Amino acid sequence: MILLQSTAWLPEAASSVAPEVDSLFQFWALVSTVIFIGVVGAMTFFVVRYRRRRRDEVPEPVKEKKVVELAWIVVPTILVLIVFTWGFRVFIKMYTAPPDAYEIVVYGYQWYWEFEYPNGVKTTNELHVPAGQPVKLRMTSVDVIHSFYVPAFRVKQDVLPDRYSSLWFEATKPGEYTVFCAEYCGTQHSGMLAKVIVHPREEFEQWLESAGIPEDMPLAELGARLYREKACFSCHSIDGSRLVGPTFKGLFGSTRTFEDGSTAVADENYLREAILQPGARVVQGYPNVMPASYASLSEREVAALIEFIKQQQ
Predict the structure, then answer these.
(1) 8 A C-beta contact, residue 193 and residue 281
(2) Residue 305 counted as domain residue
(3) What's the pLDDT at 233?
(4) Co-location of 194 and 119 in the same domain
């Protein structure tokens, strides 16, 4: 049973399971609306029909009707069984990935998503998938609980530290779709956005072959790319504006004052320590909330970020 594909309160359906989820939702919304109108209508009728007309009026005793009592037991039971059976079938389909699904590993960080493909390519906040092919996400968190949610696909799954969870989908339409974190995970939770980019199958294969970072990419250019991909922009501006963390504008070579009153010049060694051990020396006036996940950056990536920061004068 397939009802409307989209409504005023649901985004466009863009996965193979989305129409089934929408049909179940719309069926239950329709039934709930009919029941609500019926209950309110009956209440209104009874209030008007059986209102007290005189102060000395004594109403006649009302005998129960077995048909009515049976109806309000049997009808809701049937509706619940229909929804349970229907919902259980959709649930099994949503959480049983086809054996030939293309598998991608997902890492949740405060506050960005990282995706690792079977050939070793990694992307940040951009999940590239082929259209018309089942895709399975094997997910884990590096720090706190996150929740991977793609409204257009009607899929959502908690992402937990120290264990794997999974979900799968089959995107039906090429395009871009927003990924949300649906579990509060810290101060920048609302900014933990990513996007699913659905390619035609041949285009996806071409993207996969060319997606790696070239070895000869200049450090400053690589640093700018990491600044975007690792979501550094969510806490550190490059225009001097104040965010959760210190701005990168004019940072290199400046004197930093820390919570314990000590000071240091922001040279290469300080920047390296601030990236890999953010809690070692906390700048005065800023919270110690930078996640330790950046300690997994390679030496080349750290050097690239430092070079990028040096250019923000």
Answers:
(1) no
(2) yes
(3) 84
(4) yes
